[in-house]
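hey can u check if this looks right to u? its 247 residues, i copy pasted from the old doc so theres a chance i mangled smth
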Amino acid sequence: MKYLRNVIALSLLAAAPASQAGMLAVEAGVMDWSQQAEDYFGEGKSENSFIQMKGATGSAFGDLYAHVKLEDIEDSEAMGSEINIIGQINMGDSDFNWYGQVFNKQKPVWSETNTTLGVSWDKQFDNGLYAQLALAGHIVTADYKHFNSDFKGGFNGGYFIYTLMKDFDIGEQNFSFVWWQEHFFGRDDLYLKLSGDGKDFGFNGSAILRWHFHEQISAALTYRYAENNMGKDGFHDGVFYSLQYNF
């Protein structure tokens, strides 16, 4: 049986035992963006709270992951939401899968839905290292109210992601480490202008260290970064702190 291993789900499922075919959890924390990010985005990327509910399930047929996230929950005028659904359908007994993702982000003055469809490959090695690659086409639907734009969206180039994950122990303490990075290329010129990404090729990623200090509770330290992506031409980054409870 293959379980959900992908760019987002891996970083979340790291809080659950690898043998677990399903999970349901809630996570809350703070996104502490760098001064560079705050200078550009203002309060939009400063010290921002978040809370999210997430779940995943896996079977011999494939895997499904979803999360619902709220940001800036203490500020109704700035509150944003995020919904993400990711699935893999196994190609027989091989290490290849059909891959799909629908990601929606809502803010008071803009919204964007990204759909990626393609193929993925993943493998669990004997030393415990897990690796995944996925290549897909990218379709975007967006509403940028603050630009009064008539951008309707459509095909927006290609998408590529890699993920690495490893569990390890220090003394009697259990940890897991996840590194994923997703890349976008061949994007629409008007989209690049409206989104703020600027240049055709862009990427973003996370390096996540999670400490499983309790059977149901874990703490995560996440380094988040982006280049020509996530609303800014050039580089910006931040450090996130969070606690997760697994039901």
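The chain has three helices and twelve strands.
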